Amino acid sequence: MSNKSKRRHSPVVGRRGFIQAATLAGATALTPPLAAEAVPMVPRLAPRTAEPPKLVAETTMSDVELAIRDLVIANRILAHENVVDAYGHVSMRHPLNPDHYLLSRSRSPEQIEVGDIVEYTLDGEPAGGDKRPPYLERFIHGAIYAARPDIHAVVHAHSVEVLPFSISTTKLRPVIHDGAFIGAEVPVWDIADKFGHETDLLVSNMAQGGDLARRLGGNSMALMRGHGFAAAAPSLYEVVRLAVYAPKNAHVLQAGLLMGGKIKPLSKGEITARVEGPTLKPNTAAAQRAWAYWAQRAGVADLLPPQPGK
């Protein structure tokens, strides 16, 4: 069977399914159960007592369905671009409830379908009582969302290209224009610093996830010593883009180091111009072009929303 046949501050899930840079803050009511095929049923939750219930303007149930489809696309893209393999995962903050996030059940990213997406509380519990096995390291996602209200999508992966920088004093720095998305500073988190030298290096509880989130701080990416990386961004598109180009940037940096001589990384001004520039925001033609291209390569273009006029 072919791949085609398988098939949030204030950020709204756009009609193209991106979590755009003006979406979700303050949304505290949860959508009714989805009507999409095989999507797990979730209960309506009470709003947080700190503020009255309020739905994000222009966000509808169909937008949530589109968001779930985009999360499936993101998984397939990261698998096809060799960012993840049998392991690794990508999540997004729930578009109607900022205290929840969406993440697949425990399944390899290349195999994920719409019905695999589960809604979790920030402490990693399935909001709807889903009994299927979850990812062990889901705590990475919940802890980052809890620590960073500006973050709406998270990737955890084990890309070989970045691993040397997690075990060396040589810093991972942006050296190519699309490497700007990793930021000027990429800290390294060592689980042994707080949890000792007898762990399996996996983030298997909220205490470990919270420590990783503290090391990430306000950065976009943190390396995990001998393990992989965690990346965080304001939108699903932006975190996928970061995760796709971080290994490429690391590869170029390693090649440059092998050549000898002095490495010239991107300046802070160049990083800011690239990351904050208007041409690459999620709702731009350039971003949509990249998303459609990656989706096509991954065999899930059929999950994209119809183009206007078609």
Helices and strands in order:
Layout: H1 61-80, E1 89-93, E2 100-104, E3 117-121, H2 139-147, E4 153-157, H3 163-166, E5 188-189, H4 192-195, H5 206-216, E6 221-224, E7 228-233, H6 236-259, H7 268-276, H8 285-297
Parallel strand pairs: 5-6
Antiparallel strand pairs: 1-2, 1-4, 2-3, 4-7, 6-7
Helix pairs in contact: 1-6, 2-5
Describe the protein:
Helices cover 30% and strands 10% of the residues. It has 310 residues and is an alpha+beta fold. Strands 3-2-1-4-7-6-5 form a seven-stranded mixed beta sheet, with helices on both faces. A hairpin with a 3-residue loop joins strand 6 and strand 7. The longest helix has 24 residues, at 236-259. The chain is globular, with a radius of gyration of 19 Å. Residues 1-58 have low confidence and may be disordered.
CATH fold naming: L-fuculose-1-phosphate Aldolase
Spatial separation of the terminal alpha carbons: 27 Å
Second-tier CATH architecture: 3-Layer(aba) Sandwich
SSE string, helix = H, strand = E? HEEEHEHEHHEEHHH
Biggest sheet overview? 7 strands, mixed
Q: Could you report the average pLDDT, rounded to the nearest whole number?
A: 84
The helix count comes to 8
By CATH's scheme, which homologous superfamily applies?
Answer: Class II aldolase/adducin N-terminal domain
Give the strand content: 5-15%
Q: What is the CATH class name?
A: Alpha Beta
Structural class given helices, strands, pairing?
A: alpha+beta
Count of extended strands? 7
Strand order of the largest sheet: 3-2-1-4-7-6-5
The gross shape turns out to be globular
The value of Rg in angstroms is: 19 Å
Question: Uncertain regions: pLDDT < 50 for 5+ in a row?
Answer: 1-58
Q: In percent, how helical is the residue content?
A: 25-40%
